[in-house]
Amino acid sequence: MLLGQSLFQSVLDRLKAEDDDTAEQDAPTARVSGLNAGLAFDVMEGVSASSARPDQAYFETLEFPHPDNMAEQSAEPEPPPESKPEPEPEPVMPDYLTRIAAEDIAAELGISARDTAQSLSVKRRAFAKKNHPDRVHPLFRENATKRMTTANLLIDKALRRLAR
Question: Is the whole model's pTM more than 0.70, yes or no?
């Protein structure tokens, strides 16, 4: 320990003194305020670091304009009215989605006494592929939900009969 300082404090003081010595030797460079990592830029003759605007070089390399020029370029002209896309026509509900009666769905499924659990499972998946509410237009989801509910009830009833 030197003069009542800890070893750690004396090392810090020495490093600070060395840093001050090297700062005096590197007079042609200037530190940019706000950067703590010791990033230094060369100062050109007669130009100070603050007037050189090193941040401007970053914006010049980008493909989009500088933020100062954004206000000027933000007012883009509106495309001509004839180039606007036409609205899509109202979707038409498929005929099979209009049949929501249990008899119609049973006829469509074709459940018979010869069906096995596996064949009923295949029929359920095939019916769901065509009628599941997630696979139809949002306007027709209510009918699709009714059809799927009825089909599932019919197939579940047939599976219970098989289990007996």
Answer: no
